[in-house]
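queue> holo job accepted (4'-deoxy-4'-aminopyridoxal-5'-phosphate)
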Amino acid sequence: LFASVQLAPKDPIFGLTEAYVADQRADKVNLGVGVYYTDEGKVPLLKAVIKAEESIVAKRSPRGYIPIEGPNPYNSAVQNLLFGAESELIKAGRVVTAECLGGTGALRVGADFIKRLNLNAPCAISNPTWENHRGIFESAGFEVLEYAYFDGETRGVNFDGMVKSLESFPQFTTVLLHACCHNPTGADITEAQWHQVIAICKEKQLIPFLDMAYQGFADGIEQDGIAVRLFADSGMSFFVSSSFSKSFSLYGERVGALSIVTQSKDECTRVLSQLKRVIRTNYSNPPTHGAAIVAAVLNSPELRQLWEDELAQMRDRIKAMRQGLVQKLVAAGVKQDFAFIEKQRGMFSYSGLTAEQVERLQKEDGIYALSTGRICVAALNTHNIDKAAVAIARVLV
Ligand code: PMP
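queue> job finished
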């Protein structure tokens, strides 16, 4: 039965972590991850999460099935976070939200749902993008195209290229857009450029699908929601996948959501009914714990404030590491201009390191990064940053 099964390639990120774990060097550094670490190099357990969890555990609730689309207190908290508590769309009942298994699950449920609309159109992802985007949409049966995004010269967005690509796509192409903190490049488009993207999506009748995996990691909850708010104002129907893996440090709980903006309350009812079929035939209904934590935090003014403070600390620490790395590279004698690292946003930076340089870092110093040169700035800390800067300076020569 399995004689002809081929060995699949390892996932580039999880595969790299396996190599890192096997490395015996005490001062090894893993910058290949997609996880925020504290200054002590640990995955944080947020105080807001601990408090919420304590109150949930104290209740000793039974674990019956929850609704297919997840619990209402969670889904409405997600909507408020994405669209703003005063959103006209929410008031008009035009947004459907379903709890999903992390941002990944939300993308997949969304992809399956769009596929069932039988539009016979492709999906387009940024070049480059988070490697799972392609896999998710291909697995859902889409042809996957790419739109130009990163400019290797400026280390920012090649916006002209992006516009040209978007304009070339056929009607009903699903366009996957990073709402903020682009993974892997850290380069985001500006508010003015979002307006242009929206105009193209409207004119060409593209289907916008915003992937919001890092809300709060660039400038703040509200500020990072700008793309969602602008699309909400545009009057278009669109999709948002969101995740609490990073912002709540709840990676393993798999807690995310898919939100769909429709044209009317009636459309919402019909869309939700179909969404439930997608979910029911996939994993039936979502898990209880992660969503209960997030709902408890977001629906309590006191815990929400605590969470926002903790999120701000994570954001500020990443920014300090960005600044620190740029300064330390200069101090280590690097002549090239690395100031772009400070401008990039979120957990990642496309460092410009070549695959050979990344390989040398791994071999000579036990510093792990992706062969594309993506480094996770959120894995730098005051204990490893000097070593990282000196090693990077050495391989750059
Ligand atoms: N989208 C992007 C752009 C991501 O970087 C990630 C996580 N690396 C996800 C979605 C999925 O996150 P989750 O762990 O919540 O599935």
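queue> The pocket of 4'-deoxy-4'-aminopyridoxal-5'-phosphate is lined by residues 34, 102-104, 130, 178, 183, 211, 213, 243, 245, 251, 256 (CB under 6 Å).
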